[in-house]
Amino acid sequence: MNSVPACLTAILLLGSLTGCGEKPQAEETETTSENVAANERAAAAKLAPATDPIEEEIEAFRTKTRVLYNNSNFDELEKIAEDARSSKARFANGSWKLYQFYAALVCDSDEPEEMWELHDQIHKAWIAAKPDSITARVAHADFLVTHAWHARGDGYADSVTPEGWKSFGIRLNRAAEILEKAQTLSAKDPYLWDVSISTGKGLSWEKPEFEAIIAQAVAQEPKFFAVDINRSLSLLPRWLGEPGDWEAYAQQASERQDGLGAEVYARIVIYLAGYHDNIFRETKASWPRTKEGLKLMRERYPDSIKILSQIAKTATAAEDREFAKASFDQLGDVYLPSVWRKPERFIHYRNWAETGQW
Predict the structure, then answer these.
(1) Is the pLDDT of residue 20 over 60?
(2) Smaller CB count within 10 Å for the chain: N or C?
(3) Where are the domains of the chain?
(4) Within 153-203, where are the H helices?
């Protein structure tokens, strides 16, 4: 991987590089155009926010991991990461335990610079204590990428200060150097390629460099879908792609031998939907392929309330009433704020699935 000067066009930071934490789904750009009726608002007011037991299990795992990190318990961190890598363990919603391990090593985006510097010292101490650890190096590189965006800020390019650009480039290039060193270690970690994509996105690497990353990622672990989501994100026109690029990549990823099949296509669509008012109207995303993937996800992860909620929401966006209604019927009054943002939307979408009236 080659480090190049950081120069970005006018882009708005969203989604996978927010602050110093997990790569969360983007906030929806949707303007609330639904004509929410008075009876729908009344029904929404009666809804109690629900929780997903699988999400609670993930949160408990992340909390445990974070406590170990806060206390610089590198021995235990190494054990958890190695077990997650070797077992390829996943939670009951398909989320990789290894991904959630790294997601736990976070600091809030609004923390003062002194706290970020403290985190940097913890990561350096981890590498010093475990010089042959791929976990320590990947974690540090991931931190540096988000620290770079912290320096840049989340505004348009013309709002970034010269000092912000300087720190942005320095930290991303440090991350690239650490990742290059990590690739020489005997241990292999699929999350390394996810961080590589984030690094390359910030440094505006060329297409061949991303293709090399994907080739190595797929050869190592074709089912680690975080890499595919991040690469699809980088192919949005606001980043490094052209219209139709991410859709073509998603199709290719879904046809990969030994991959997740249509599931990865659906996961990409669910994630990127947060960057559109309606992804099926604004892009070349295939609803038939997405639907196929959603059905697979429901079969593979039947206990996930979040996935069922995402199916209902995505089917509504695609205007597939029958599929949406079947999912809403299973949900009943189970409202997850993390999916719907607000109860009025849940009620309004459910009413559309039942009546066809928007």
Answers:
(1) no
(2) C
(3) 35-52+305-358, 222-303
(4) 162-182, 191-202
